[in-house]
Amino acid sequence: MDTDDLCFAGAARQAELVAGRAVTAVELVQVTLDRIADVDPRINSFRTVLGERALSEAAQADEQLALGNALPMLGVPVAVKDTIAVEGEVTTFGTGCNAIAAAVDSPLVARLREAGAVIIGITTCSELAVWPITETPTWGATRNPWNTEHSPGGSSGGSGAAVAAGLCGLAVGSDGLGSIRVPASFNGVFGLKPQRDRVWHGSADWKGLSVNGPLTRTVADAALFLDAAATAGPASGFLAAAVPGGPRLRIAIAWKSLVEWPVMARLGDAQRRAVDETAGVLRDLGHTVVEQEIDFPRRAANDGMIRYLAGVHESQAVLEKPELLSPQTARMVSLGGRIPKRIVRSAMDAVAACADQINELFTHVDVVLTPGALQDPLKIGELDGAGALRRLNQSGRIIPHYSPWNVIGQPAASVPAGFSETGLPVSVQLAGRPSDEETLLRLAAEIETVKPWFEERPGCV
User: Fold this and answer.
1) What is the 3-state secondary structure (H, E, C) of 393-431?
2) Residue 315 among the catalytic residues
3) Comparison of pLDDT for 258 and 283, the residue scoring more
């Protein structure tokens, strides 16, 4: 296997190769670091690369393997978003506000290390993880490896771009209103927003909207992550679920979104075709596919925005010098602070009822299929000079199908589904019942066998 093939193999396959001694962990980490050094100057997906430290950890992994100590992710390079603490490194949250290094790994990073993963670096994100683009005054613009004039999305833009460019097979992101699924869509990789509380997140969870999860080349990579990082899961493990087969399902296509933005973006032809073609694949696989819209509660969109803004306001507590935020992000923090606590409590109290109303659909179907992002990603710099609310509207209107699953906390996945006329990736979204990542993984794995998106590689890198 040549070095490019190894870098694009995905985390699950890399784990197999190390376990089978087809490659050493040191060799795998070194070729990954070499590719990062060659490619990342063009896309800026890493804020920090942990080169010598990663090689030291890889050498330790090889020693463990020699002693017969097999671990599921032994020697596999993994990147983590700049919202997740890594011992000895500053967690900047995409800002210039922090300078103190973390004293210990976050519980999530600790779990990944326990599974044998090598932390290769820390990926870029938008300021305070607020925006669905990854362009910051401190760390610059992260670029889409399929077309470097375009954004990779956000807020986990660095994670999505790094996986797409073959700089790691698995990167961790966080998703508060689509921040895993947006960059997964725009970069042509698989992205899973797990069930709320499935994976450790920490206190800055935007009133329960935000969760941590994987962006990966394959479905098996995401399942491997969950087996390592999840606080609970199926007895047989998630990786065992991420294989085609099982009972045939009833799947609903839902075209309408929860959020009706002031200036709604039209669903692009390629993005509509992605849903239609995916539905065709599912029918060919023996599943029943019907069109049935979700009965969204009237208050759900407003409650989601209240929780988002209140959460953004609270999350400034992770910053040492919040006064250094950009004016746009500082404005979002300020808006959240103006919401009366009783309004926030009301929004939180309504979650269960909102979930019950949306989940009525799951009494008739097993999975919901929706569009992913409605159009191609914005161009780099397109929102330069825009105020906070214009920036939110202009970027957010392209991604309205993601937020319901944050509001009610249920799992949803971005599945690659080809390319638009411009050569940029398009996607669909699969959403499921509470705590039912297994069904989403199995269904996505079936699609993956018919349409192996992981074989595609961006030409710009």
Assistant:
1) HHHHCCCCCCHHHHHCCCCEEEEEEEECCCCCEEEEEEE
2) no
3) 283
